[in-house]
Structure formats: structure tokens, C-alpha cells
Predict the 3D structure of the following.
Amino acid sequence: MSFGKKTAGVLAITLTFGFLTALSASADDGKGKRLPSFTSAPSSALYKQECSSCHFLYQPWLLPERSWQAIMDESGKHFGENLGLDAETDKEIRAYLKANSSDKTAARWAQKITSSSEGMTPKKIMDVPWIKKEHREVGAGVFKRPSIGSPSNCGACHQKGAEGNFEEDFIKIPK
Ligand code: HEC
Ligand code: HEC
């Protein structure tokens, strides 16, 4: 896909208004520049406080918007826990997740997550087909090691995963 100067200008304006979705179908930034593989979502003290006390801090771009919506709709029975979020907290976290979901993130891994989960609403990141495929060489027995526990424990292996960096150089599988 190639864009003329005018198109690039229109895109820049579109971006300003936050309609990043317009870009998510292409692997470049609309100006022909290759997108980075990952990004760090803006940090949110509220998200960190409410959503990482029990587990790994999942980057919002690890799931599409409709997945976060489904997860938040069920926060009263969140994987067996009642998160007890008040209305204001619920609203703020939803807005944060929505704005930074895979559909809204201009990075290659986010786009792979969006396109591979089309037509599905995964509630676990390992249910995203592309994520699952990337882990095909990790045996089920490995995820069950006491030092790991389950595939949800991304940070056990991905040393910089909470920042969105899942690159090979920062993977260390605990014994
Ligand atoms: C009281 C503890 C608790 C809190 C607080 C909590 N969670 Fe969870 N969450 C769980 C449990 C338990 C699981 C199941 C996976 C596991 O065992 O780690 C889970 C799983 C998840 C998963 C699926 C992980 C995967 O494998 O892909 C997501 C996404 C998630 N939580 C998001 C959130 C969000 C968003 C919030 C804040 C609104 C939140 N969690 C707050 C307990 C919690
Ligand atoms: C048992 C250790 C382990 C756990 C737990 C784990 N991963 Fe991975 N992950 C790996 C390995 C090994 C690879 C493949 C590395 C390779 O071949 O480049 C990988 C690859 C990836 C990739 C692709 C990176 C690339 O270079 O293309 C992403 C993204 C990723 N993991 C995210 C996650 C997320 C999110 C979670 C938690 C829901 C998770 N991983 C849990 C070990 C793990």
C-alpha cells in the first residue's frame, strides 16, 4: 500500500483524533515506515493497582477490545474472584483498556493478535491463535512447573513482558 502526501496528511489528522483502527490493517505506519513489533502502552497507576495485584500486568494490546469488554462485564466473577470494582474505577479501566487494546495499537504483534482472533472473543491470551502458535514448542508440562504454574504467568518466562517486550533475548524459562 502506498500513500501520497495528501493521504498522509489526512492520516495524521485521523491519528490526532485517535482513530488508529484505520491503520491496523497494514504493517506500516501509513507513511511506509515499518511498525515496531511491540510497544509499551501508557502506564496507568489505576490499572496497575487494580489489575496486577493477583497476576502479571497484561499489556492492553494483548487482547482485542471486545475481549476486554467481556472480561470487564464479568468482573463480578473474574476467574472465580469478585473484583468488587466501584463504578468510577470500572469506567476508567474500561476506557484505558479500550484505548490501548490490540485493535487500537500500531505495532506488529498487536496487529497479529487482532487479525488472528477475528470472529472470536478470547478471554485468555493463550487462546489468541497467533499467541498459541508462538508457544507451540513450549510443552504443556513446562507451563505446569511449580516455578511457572500456568500459561497465564507470562512474567515467569518473559523477563520484560510487563513492558510489552516479549523478544527472544529476554526469555528465560525457569527450571
Ligand atoms: C483478586 C485477584 C485478581 C484481580 C484483582 C484481578 N485478577 Fe485477573 N485473574 C485472576 C485469576 C485468578 C485469573 C486466572 C489466571 C490465573 O490463575 O492467573 C485471572 C486472569 C486474568 C486474565 C486472563 C489471563 C490469561 O491467561 O490470558 C486477564 C486478561 C485478567 N485476569 C485481567 C484482569 C483485569 C483487567 C483486572 C483488573 C480489572 C484483573 N484481572 C484483576 C485474578 C485477579
Ligand atoms: C514457559 C515460558 C513462557 C510463558 C509462561 C509464556 N511464554 Fe511467551 N514465549 C515463550 C517462548 C519460549 C516463546 C518463543 C520464542 C521464540 O521462539 O522466538 C514465546 C513467544 C512469545 C511471543 C512472540 C515473540 C516473538 O518474538 O514473536 C509473545 C508475544 C509472547 N510469547 C507472549 C506471551 C504472553 C502474553 C504470555 C502470557 C499470557 C506468555 N508469552 C507466556 C515462553 C513463554
About this structure: The chain has two domains: 1-34, 36-170. Residues 1-34 form one domain. The CA atoms of residues 7 and 89 lie 39 Å apart. Residues 50-51, 53-55, 58, 71, 75, 78-81, 83, 93, 124-126, 150, 152 surround heme C (ligand 1) (CB under 6 Å).
